[in-house]
Amino acid sequence: MTTIEPRIPMLAEDEARAIGKEVGVPSTMAGLNVFRTISHHPELAGVVAKQLAMLLYRGNKLDERLRELIIMRIGWRTGAMYEWTQHWPVSLRIGLSEEEILAVRDPANATCLGAAELAVLAATDDVLDNGGVGEAAWQACGKHLHTNEERLELVAAICNWNTFSIMLKSLHIGLEDGVAAWPPDGVPSPNAD
């Protein structure tokens, strides 16, 4: 795998953490390469971190398993190595199996995903392909997401991590030192740089 030079140099980790402390980037995020880059613009780093923290830790209206499948599908479809690699352990930690995570590579042929999982993945694909969730996917999601809050978080999650994918790829943000790309098997997305 070719290493691409970052378009904006990363700040030193201690500098990024100090900025993060000032603008509200959680300590679990502040030292990551993405925030070591984004923290060149402290106000932006703070806003991005607040949205991420809300969707990851404080939202909790959308089932976290569905959220992680959305993130992994976006990482795979867009070729965002950083996104896939960072969220692989998160997905395992919240209870997804390797088989379920890998199924986002080809959900149409997956036998381990249920109707709710397939519905949110179809909604994700609609956004990636057409810029918005289509009526069929919206109706399918509605059978499993019963509240407006869940549906809002569905759309926010798809938009947030699609934006992140674009940012990660556009800025050439690389993995943290010692982290192996594209777990578990190192097979990159066909759309990877």
What does this structure look like?
The chain has two domains: 11-58; 61-193, Up-down Bundle (AhpD-like). The termini are close together. With 193 residues, it is mostly helical. The protein has ten helices and no strands. α5 packs parallel to α10 (148-171) and α8 (115-130) packs antiparallel against α9 (135-142).
List the keywords.
single chain, 193 residues, 2 domains, AhpD-like, mainly alpha, globular
The CATH architecture of the largest domain can be named as Up-down Bundle
- Rg, Å, rounded: 16 Å
- Tell me about the biggest sheet? none
Number of strands: 0
- Sheet-strand content, in percent, reads under 5%
CATH topology of the largest domain: AhpD-like
Helix content: 55-70%
Summarize the structure.
This protein has ten helices and no strands.
Could you outline the blueprint of secondary structure elements for this entry?
Layout lengths: L12 H11 L3 H4 L2 H6 L3 H17 L5 H15 L2 H13 L4 H5 L12 H16 L4 H8 L5 H24 L22
Helix pairs in contact: 1-4, 5-6, 5-8, 5-10, 8-9, 8-10
